Amino acid sequence: SSGINAEYGVTGKPNIHWCSLEKLRFVNIVMSVLIFLVMYTIFRKLSRRLKDDPGLGIQPIHRTCCMMNSLVLSCFPLLYFYNLLYYTDVGSVLFVLSSYSCSIRNHHLKSAMLGAISVLFRQTNIIWVGFTAGTVVIRDIENRGLLLQCDDFVSQMGIAVRVILRYFWQYVYLLLPYLTVLSGFAVFIVWNKGIVVGDKSAHTAVLHFPQFLYFLLFLTAFSLPHMVQRLRHSHMTVLYYVFKPVHVLLFFVSALLALYLFKYEHPYLLADNRHYTFYIWRKILNRTPLIMYYLLPLCFYTFLNMVALLSTVHSKFFTLLYFLCVASQIVPQGLLEFRYFILPYILYRLHVPQHSWVVLFLELCQYTLINLITVKLFLNKTFDWDSPNELSPNPQRFMW
Fold first, then answer.
1. Which pLDDT belongs to residue 99?
2. Cα–Cα distance, 6 to 374 (Å, whole number)
3. How many CB atoms lie within 10 A of CB 104?
4. Are 366 and 225 in contact (CB under 8 A)?
5. I need a surface site. Which of 25, 201, 221, 241 has the fewest CB within 10 A?
6. pLDDT per residue over 108-127, tens digit each?
7. Is the alpha carbon torsion for 212, 213, 214, 219 positive or negative?
């Protein structure tokens, strides 16, 4: 009540803010409004690149629809919830999206500076600085029109490599602001002896490949209206992969190996019963040893739709870069923590804008219902730990 707020974030290091609650909440209100405006800017810019493909349910969207997409996405439950608690996630999202928005408008120095600020909120945001730099190269190669000479990805990859080698120093100059940030962060890692600031023992990097499957399930749950709508168009995607069994086999073999060899249970996941992941893990994902294997077809369905939409709306190069960056952020994390999925989800949703008002309305209803439930539980449903410690002497509350 005194206005002192402590957050134990990814680093495990407490950040104490000596400030009034009113000022802290005002900062979050400003940030949430700015996030909405930046989302709208990105939706407007990217909507001009949309390809009209009724077979996949893709249509260009107008300004009002962009605004509605932005409004709905700004109510995304995890972003909304942590906005109320003054976590670093809100600032992290704001500066990553602002950096990307500047990049797609060719303001690369501003983009790199905003990306550097985002890293101060969360060290792993350096991955999204690299993502933004990669999209600059991809857009330039696409604008040259050389990729239209062939359809298969291998041939396009060969063309892209030749273009990069031919204009190598031009790309170095173009990406110099981003390369400066990336180089500076590399120096920091060497100096800090790692990426983690704080308790390094609690945040050791691991190969936690099932995180990618958890993210697919997370995306399915929070984009449920979209996934239901996609049922009308998914038959084309499914048929495409039926005739490419190698792709299907590769996904399921990789997923089975990930679950069998790289499943990891972080001590925090098993001990901290304030977070919903504690109950989701116990009651669903780890209820039986085989439950995740049963969910693999759903993961595959979501993955197919993501690949089909991103590759059609943008390009296969963009899709590959996106998935590589998502994997780079979430796979090294030993802890199943939904906060790690916020930026991957928002960036995906920004690149597949929804044109159906019905789906947008259902998505808004879904988000609103989840927000009401989570806020009500946080405010009204408290509990005490059997052995309270000096860090958490007060009644505990449920949270994401």
1. 97
2. 20
3. 17
4. yes
5. 201
6. 999 999 999 999 999 999 99
7. positive
